[in-house]
Specification:
The protein has 489 residues and is α+β, with helices and mostly antiparallel strands. The chain contains 15 helices and 20 strands. Helix 4 crosses helix 7 and helix 7 crosses helix 10. The relative contact order is 0.11.
């Protein structure tokens, strides 16, 4: 009898735990209506939208996007113009903001779930950041009833899951529209995202249910204001009914944050309305825009670059030198000599890492953070070291030379010492950790490829240096960051 009661108790506890976990995940509310509920159909639709877009070339860093949130058949193509810009990029956390469409409440609701779910899988919530925001101000809380039916955030997930490899989410829904609330949220976001590798996304449609010509006229005014990168001015125009944004508070907040974080330009990527698609009714349309808020140059965001990126000619020249050096050493045991020729940039003294791959796997990786010889000579030396003297791998044999692929990480900066580890941005910076005579480094791409967050990266860095994983917290540990340009065969 006791055994039966014990088994029943265990079963009930297990069942309750499963239920608690299920409730802790925000499930899709509009899958099958706003977008396909089938993972394969959804994935194909999103990829088809993205394939049709040519990304816009920019010199700066993306701080924020503004995207529409209607059914995919109406606004998906427009949204793809923003998300196409994210391909190949990495962000630790995406902060997604929208206005509540179905539930009225004051203040802001931050989704304190474990994950947001879509047909493509679960996106983990950045609980650390969520809890910090909720503790920051009484106006910032968690109202589950606001998140459960809301579509404006949910419809962004399939795009994000397609273009970003690994990220966490902070889902924010704004209640009754108030400029004061926008300022409160903006202050909290800036305070708690300082030094983090984050992306802000505002979800909004434009004018609703006007004729095609009238909607275009209204939306032009909204876009012109958003281009001014002034959230307060945008909010003022909404109050004066100069234009319409159903995600007006979210957009105004995002613009305030972006401007304070260094955004210098707001550019329109695509405008259209529901009358532009085959199913659209031109007598009653909804407007959609994709916009991107960026810094002017990468240097203004990262603050450490001191060299210009190499152009394609210089890249090809260095790859050729690396390969010829490996081939020459494999044959003669000597390091070939090279001159910069007419490419003066190759005479600069920069750090460089050479990574060798065979059959898709690393076969060697060695580099130097500084150099006392011209870049053209340093590449030759380092390529030979990576191929023949990386102790983690057997020496490359002459028969393997034609089977390898070579990748170079050429430094765009010197080493910059940081006093606050939050200054290290995953995917943008390489990092060096030193404690006494022990130390280790990761190139910018390593944490991205491994799917590590900042804490995991630092722990792995300690292990690589032969230290305990929590040593990075010690006061006598030094950190340096640097940036690189990566290219290869």
């Amino acid at each position: 009898m006791i055994n039966k009661i014990s088994l029943i108790t265990i079963f009930l506890i297990f069942s309750m735990n499963k239920l608690a976990v299920a409730r802790d995940v925000r499930s899709p509310a509009v899958a099958g209506s706003f977008y396909p509920g089938s993972p394969s159909e959804l994935r194909e639709m999103v990829n088809d939208f993205l394939r049709k877009v040519i990304p816009k070339k920019i010199e700066g860093e993306i701080i924020a996007l503004i995207v529409p949130h209607a059914g995919f058949v109406f606004s998906g193509e427009v949204a793809a113009y923003s998300y196409k810009q994210l391909e190949g990029k990495h962000f630790d956390t995406v902060i997604l903001l929208g206005d509540s469409h179905r539930v009225r409440f004051s203040g802001v609701s931050v989704g304190n779930y474990s994950a947001y779910r879509s047909p493509l899988g679960d996106v983990p919530i950045d609980r650390d950041l969520v809890n910090k925001l909720i503790k920051e101000n009484p106006q910032i809380k968690f109202h589950p009833q606001a998140h459960q039916p809301e579509h404006s955030l949910e419809v962004q997930l399939p795009f994000l899951q397609t273009v970003l490899k690994d990220f966490k989410l902070v889902p924010i829904i704004m209640g009754e529209r108030s400029l004061e609330t926008c300022k409160i949220l903006a202050d909290a976001l800036i305070k708690h995202t300082k030094g983090r590798n984050v992306l802000f996304i505002a979800s909004t449609d434009l004018s609703h249910f006007h004729s095609y010509a009238r909607a275009t006229e209204i939306d032009k005014r909204a876009i012109a204001t958003m281009k001014k990168l002034d959230g307060k001015l945008l909010f003022q125009g909404l109050e004066e009914e100069k234009y319409e944004l159903c995600g007006g508070a979210a957009t105004a907040t995002t613009m305030i944050v972006a401007q304070r974080l260094g955004a210098k330009q707001s550019m329109l990527l695509k405008y259209a309305n529901s009358g532009d698609v085959p199913l659209g009714d031109k007598s009653r349309v909804v407007g959609y825009a994709s916009m991107m808020l960026t810094t002017q140059t990468k240097e203004k965001r990262t603050g450490i670059e001191s060299f210009q990126p190499l152009d394609e000619k210089a890249q090809r020249h260095l790859i050729r030198i690396a390969r010829q050096s490996i081939q020459g050493y494999a044959t003669t045991g000597a390091t070939p000599k090279f001159e910069p020729q007419d490419l003066k940039v190759l005479n600069e003294r920069r750090g460089v890492f050479v990574t060798i791959y065979k059959d898709g796997r690393m076969r060697g990786c060695i580099g130097t953070h500084t150099s006392d010889v011209p870049l053209v000579q340093q590449v030759a030396r380092t390529a030979i070291d990576a191929a023949f003297f990386d102790r983690r791998f057997p020496r490359l044999t002459p028969g393997e030379v034609n089977d390898i692929k070579i990748e170079l990480s050429v430094y765009l900066s010197g080493l910059v010492k940081i006093n606050d580890i939050s200054q290290y941005e995953i995917g943008r910076h390489g990092i060096i950790m030193r404690k006494g005579r022990q130390g280790a480094t990761f190139l910018p791409k390593v944490p991205v490829e491994q799917g590590w967050d900042r804490k995991e990266t630092l722990e792995q860095l300690c292990r690589k240096a032969g230290l305990q994983p929590d040593v990075w917290r010690d006061k006598d540990v030094e950190f340096y960051i640097y940036s690189t340009q990566v290219f290869g065969e």
